[in-house]
Amino acid sequence: MPTPLPALIVVDVQRAFDEWEAAGKRRNNPDAVARIVDLLAAFRTSRAPIFHIRHEGTRPNSSFLPSRSGYAVKDEAREQDGEPVIVKQVNSAFIGTDLEARLREAGITTLVICGATTNHCVETTTRMAGNLGFDARLVRDATWTFDRIGPDGDAHSAEAIHAMTLSNLNGEFARIVTTAEVIASFAAK
């Protein structure tokens, strides 16, 4: 029996992040969405499974409330017919959803994870994927985050947060890869 293809997990590529940026929040990795588009094309060409994750806010001021413009997916990353959309209300795409059951039922063991933001929903989903025994691969150039202020008032750049998140996940929860490496792995099959 052939080994199932990896699944692409596209986390929260929603317009709220564009709105945050337009309001002055600074992010890293401006080409991340273009890399996600590249991944989507490669997975579609290879007929590999794709799961789109959407964050649905629950707090009254959330940018991700279904009634707000930020809930909508970015056009570039919109799902196509047959590609499931899984809606979550917490950071992990595995909590309160049927994502794990769908993956197990399909015999999928390898997950390629991309999306937003590196240190929130992408990180939480990746950590949980590793804990659940999946071969998780986080695509470093297909995710991004924003500058943040720490609990002591210290400013942390998006670049530093992104790098630290990748360092924390590397080897223990996931393998850190690039878009080019993922695409090359399809060519090698």
UniProtKB/TrEMBL annotation:
Domain of life: Bacteria
Record-annotated Isochorismatase-like domain positions: 7-181
InterPro entries per UniProt: Isochorismatase-like_dom (IPR000868), Isochorismatase-like_hydrls (IPR050272), Isochorismatase-like_sf (IPR036380)
SUPFAM superfamilies: Isochorismatase-like hydrolases
MF terms (GO), sorted A to Z: hydrolase activity
UniProt keywords, alphabetically: Hydrolase
Stored PANTHER family: ISOCHORISMATASE HYDROLASE, PEROXYUREIDOACRYLATE/UREIDOACRYLATE AMIDOHYDROLASE-RELATED
Protein name: Nicotinamidase-related amidase
Provenance organism: Bradyrhizobium stylosanthis
